[in-house]
Specification:
The structure is a homodimer.
Chain A lengths: L3 E3 L13 E4 L1 H8 L3 E9 L2 E12 L2 E6 L4 H11 L4 E10 L4 E13 L5 H4 L4 E3 L7 E5 L3 E7 L3
Antiparallel strand pairs in A: 2-10, 3-4, 3-6, 4-5, 5-9, 6-7, 7-9, 7-10
Chain lengths: ~150, ~150
């Protein structure tokens, strides 16, 4: 059986090594600033869920869209009632050939963008590839931003 | 402000549309079978965590490695005590230029591979890119496999 490289960035608690580097918050924010595709994790009826979403960074917050009534909406409504619920948002860039890459993890509370924030969201046009009505804007306010890079020292 | 496409696959509860397609379990398993880089989500001290890991599929289970004593280890030990704790494991392939791609979500309980399973893990060599001791094998037993694809009908 051929050996497979393991992009194991899980051990955030370990010190920097020859190939695993912790990223500072400033560099993390720089890496995710351009927006693009990230992955959001939240609690669901069948356990945790990870889903890719296109995101943008607006005023330091992660913004993405989803569909009202969808699986995330239900969870978001719970989040509205309980502001302590946090989600994870992750962006990475991985080069399997060179066996290097980076991963940034944003943690923080999330909530629907409310009616009085519509003007704010109007500056964040998003065109869902998946089509359909995805008129629910979600904002994640980062309370913790961490990152790690794997590659040459 | 330039418009950004939104790879919004979040609405798993909606019916198939012109561009959003649900994938059957068989196709999901076929897509993730080759192994590679996936992302695991689990509960952490500071809220949910998403981290990329390299994985393999062995006997229908997701297998990856992490470091004993790392952030995931702590959570895994909790999982060992409480077998009901589930995690999410996601694999995707996204083409931002063509605005299409797929995402497979595996949900299920996870646990450390124990001593009596060492022989089993010996068939799953993994070489961590990040280096260091990552002698903790983790297995996720899928109880729910779902997938979605965005692209032309």
């Amino acid at each position: 059986m051929a050996e497979t490289a393991n992009f194991d960035l899980a051990a955030t608690g370990e010190p920097d090594g020859a190939t695993l580097h912790r990223l500072g918050e400033e560099e993390c924010l720089r890496l995710i600033a351009p927006g693009g595709v990230g992955r959001v994790a939240f609690g669901g009826a069948d356990g945790p869920v990870i889903l890719p979403v296109n995101y943008r960074v607006v005023d330091g917050a992660i913004v993405f869209r989803t569909r009202a009534g969808g699986v995330m909406d239900r969870d978001l409504r719970t989040g509205v009632r309980n502001v302590d619920i946090k989600i994870a948002f992750e962006v990475d860039e991985i080069d399997p050939v060179r066996e290097e890459g980076w991963s940034v993890l944003v943690q923080g509370p999330f909530h629907q963008v409310t009616a009085d924030e519509v003007r704010w969201t109007a500056d964040v046009p998003v065109r869902p590839w998946a089509g359909g009505d995805r008129d629910l804007y979600v904002r994640v306010t980062p309370t913790r931003v961490t990152g790690r890079r794997v590659g040459p020292a």
